[in-house]
Each structure stands twice: as structure tokens, then as C-alpha cells.
Amino acid sequence: MTYVKHNGVPDLFITMTCNPNWQEITSELFPGKEAERPVQIFIHLVDSHNIYGLKRCHVYTIEWQKRGLPHVHLLAWMAEKIRPHQIDSLISAELPDPKKDPALFATITKHIIHGPCGPLNPRSLCMKDGQCTKHYPRQFLRETVTSLNGYPLY
Question: Which residues contact 84 (CB under 8 A, 6 or more apart)?
Fold first, then answer.
């Protein structure tokens, strides 16, 4: 809360989970080496290489998911505030084309997509009184919409 008190609302809230056994990671390692701290490498990229632009400050925490994978929550305050019309150039919330990149499509649909829930799986943990408590499925939008409560709709 001290960061918010001094810097205002953060421009970016980034979450990332990384499995060090993913082929995309292991294929880049020297023979006999293991992936070490992939989440910290991501933080280093944000911190030192300005992959989202020049930032003023950031704060993050790393936790371990039930599957034993590292998971990071990172808040970043940019040198220049991100405006609503810039969001779509920084964030993509669409599935890759399964014909052009079948491996990426398979990874995302296996690890990142919520569900199934609703009529397909009414016993899912997210279900309460016949409705998904996470409000899925969500409406498809061509452009990001920002709201007064701080939660964008992608």
C-alpha cells in the first residue's frame, strides 16, 4: 500500500506462471543444465530491459502454486501513464491460431483457460448456484474497455 500511496494506482498488474520443464525452456539450455528461476528472469527483463516501456518502480511477490510451479504477481508504475488506447498494444487476450502455432495453442488451452464450467461441468469448484463465480464465459470484445472499478475487459 505504500507504493500506491506514493505512486498512485499501478499501470500494470502482471501475473505469470512458468514451468521450467516446458520444451520452450529446456530446448534453450546447454546440455546437462536445468532451468533456474524462470520467474526471476522475467522480472529481470521487466526491470532491466524495459520490455513494457520505461518504468518508475515495481513491486512483486512470488508464490508457489499447488502444482509446485512458481507464480509471480508484479505491479509496475510506468514513467508515462498507460492510457486506455495503449492497452491493446501491450496486452493480448486472444488465442493463437491453432494452425499457425499448434504448440502454443495447446499450451494455452491446457494451462491458462478457465474451465470448463457451467453446463459442461456443473460440479466445477468455481460454480455456485449454477453460475460461475468468476463470471465465465465472458463476452468477446474487439478492443479493451476500461471501467471505473479498475478492471479492464479485454
Answer: 144, 146
Per-position DSSP letters for 89-125, written without gaps between them: HH---SPPPTTT-HHHHHHHHHHTS----GGG-TTST
pLDDT over 90 percentage in the chain: 6
Measured CA to CA, the distance from residue 104 to residue 23 in angstroms comes to 11
Q: Which three cell numbers stand for residue 64?
A: 508457489
Determine the pLDDT at residue 18.
Answer: 74
What's residue 128's pLDDT? 93
Position 129 scores a pLDDT of 92
pTM of structure: 0.59
Three-state secondary structure readout of 5-19: HHHCCCCEEEEEECC
User: Are 58 and 73 in contact, with CB atoms under 8 Å apart?
Assistant: no
